Amino acid sequence: MTDSFLTFEQNWRAFEHEHVWHPYAAMPASMQPVPVASAQGVRLILEDGRELIDGMSSWWAAIHGYNHPVLNKAVRSQLEKMSHVMFGGLTHRPAAELAALLVGLTPEPLDQVFFADSGSVSVEVAIKMAFQYWQAKGRTEKQALLTVRGGYHGDTFGAMAVCDPVTGMHHLFSHALPRHYFAPAPDCPFSGDWDDACIAGFRALLQAHHKQIAAVILEPIVQGAGGMRFYGPEYLRRVRALCDEHDVLLIFDEIATGFGRTGTLFATDRAGVSPDIMCVGKALTGGYMTLAATLTTRRISGQISKNGGAFMHGPTFMANPLACATAVASIKLLLDSPWRSRVAEIEAGFKAGLEDCRSLEAVRDVRALGAIGVVEFKDDLDMNWVQPGLVDKGVWLRPFGRLLYAMPPYVIDSKDLDRIICAMREVAAEVAAKAPQSRNRG
Fold first, then answer.
1. Which of 235, 282, 288, 416 is catalytic?
2. Distance between CA 156 and CA 46 in Å, rounded?
3. Which one of the listed residues 66, 133, 152, 231 is annotated catalytic?
4. Is 142 a catalytic residue?
5. 8 Å CB contact between 152 and 167
6. β-pair partners for 182
7. Does 86 fall in a domain?
8. Is residue 345 packed enough to be buried (19+ CB in 10 Å), middle (13-18) or exposed (0-12)?
9. Main-chain dihedrals φ then ψ at residue 162, nearest 5 degrees
10. Model confidence over 73-92: pLDDT tens digits?
11. In whole angstroms, what is the distance from residue 144 CA to residue 151 CA?
12. What are phi and psi of 240, to 5 degrees?
């Protein structure tokens, strides 16, 4: 080994701090990232030997936990055959098998599958599908989208354009993004009586601009990174009916909610409706590698392909065989497991364990749905002490803004779930204790 390599081995963290740029962070980062040496089950094993219970499933993805023998076997088996081959002009069994699973599990009439390499790209694909569909029909005026405030659909430019333009993270790029229509965020509770006023703003925008609107795009039931808000399934039924009435396509972004996270296999299952286009990702491979898919109907693919037309998108790593084979194994592992009861137990744990936080003056709301637990505060959290404090408590959570939330792997046991909940309660109490001091200083 060279002296420079030996030096790197001894000081890799210093090098990383100076040269590796992390997501949503300055360069170099103001907070040192936590170094992970390995992961097993629901635990992250740090370089210093400490273990953290992962309450984030690596941003919703690692639903089976880490280092799972079934998924490891699927990776090794496919790796011995081929890790990658281009999808342009070639095909392979793992892609076909994964497509068959997705078509069988998603609502009819979704039966056309386009593979992408990340959730954001699958949203870009969905938007392009909608635009190209209307162009193929000669309706070139339909070049806008309608969505709701409080949403998040990814960090690429098309996806950014339908994230919340005011409270979202992409305001720096507002001058460069296409202008779309934003209805009020759904404020109908997940359970309770329906109030038609909840859809009034959405209906008015669609009625006024449907001739220009190509598609509506929504996160069904759960608005994820835009605020971790839950809303009732009746809203989706009304949106579906309005889209049909006004000849507008409907896109559901199930990247965060798909594969059981909300308690049903897909969040749209709670409403019993089907979109024209659906995006899936994150948990698709069980968190092993990046892969996403955009599903649509034969009506849309047929119109785009009419007279020899081609859909104009083609990621280099589209339908990567290694990722597809792992996704097949992950989905089968999920379906063969008691995932519904596990998710229900996690939801019950969050509801019971976090309820005491509701009485704290600093807390705005507490909510849980499926394997998602949320404590929302009235003011932004101070990450300089909240994040290290959680690590000291032995759990890994990634709060942002006013939100302290968890979405653990489904395989978590009650003891580890209780430790996550206890850490959330302790942080909430600490925030509440600091709040009066902050107000007095102000």
1. 282
2. 31
3. 152
4. no
5. no
6. 147
7. yes
8. middle
9. -115, 10
10. 999 999 999 999 999 999 99
11. 17
12. -60, -45
Across the beta sheet with 403-406, what order do the strands follow? Answer: 363-369, 372-377, 403-406
Token duo for residue 437: 């001091």
Residue showing tokens 């084979």: 325
Q: Which of 24, 48, 193, 336 is catalytic?
A: 24
Confidence (pLDDT) at 7: 67
**Hey, what are 423's tokens?**
């850490």
CA distances, 222 to each of 227, 280, 316, 405 (Å): 9, 14, 31, 13
**Inside any domain, residue 414:** yes
pTM of this prediction exceeds 0.85: yes
> What CATH number is associated with residue 55?
3.90.1150.10
Residue 439's pLDDT is what? 46
Annotated active-site residue in 155, 253, 269, 416: 253
Q: Assess whether pLDDT exceeds 60 at residue 330.
A: yes
- Give the phi and the psi of residue 312 in degrees, each rounded to 5: -95, 75
Decide if 288 is catalytic: no
Q: Which of 286, 307, 336 is the last residue of a domain?
A: 336
* 321 shares its domain with 423: no
Average pLDDT over residues 291-310: 95
| Annotated catalytic residue 81 | no
Q: What DSSP string describes 274-339?
A: --SEEEE-GGGGTTSS--EEEEEEHHHHHHHHGGG-------TTTT-HHHHHHHHHHHHHHHHTTH
**Do 433 and 332 have their domain in common?**
no
Same domain flag for 342 and 407: yes
Maximum distance among all Cα pairs of the chain, rounded to whole angstroms: 70
**Annotated catalytic residue 66:** no
Q: For the chain, how many structural domains are there in total?
A: 2
**Angle 294-328-321 (CA atoms, 0-180°, nearest 5)?**
75
CB-CB neighbours of 64 under 10 Å: 25
- State the number of CA atoms in the 13 A half-sphere of 106 facing the CB: 29
* Residue 13 confidence (pLDDT): 86
Helices then strands, counting H and E runs in the chain, come out as 13, 16
Helix (H) or strand (E) holding 342: helix 339-354
The two three-digit tokens of residue 195, written as one number = 């109030």
Rounded to whole angstroms, the Cα distance separating 217 from 151 reads 9
Backbone angles phi, psi at 274, to 5 degrees: -125, 135
Backbone φ and ψ for 343, nearest 5 degrees, come out as: -65, -40
Query: Residue 379 sits in which domain range?
Result: 12-67+338-441
- Average pLDDT value for the chain: 94
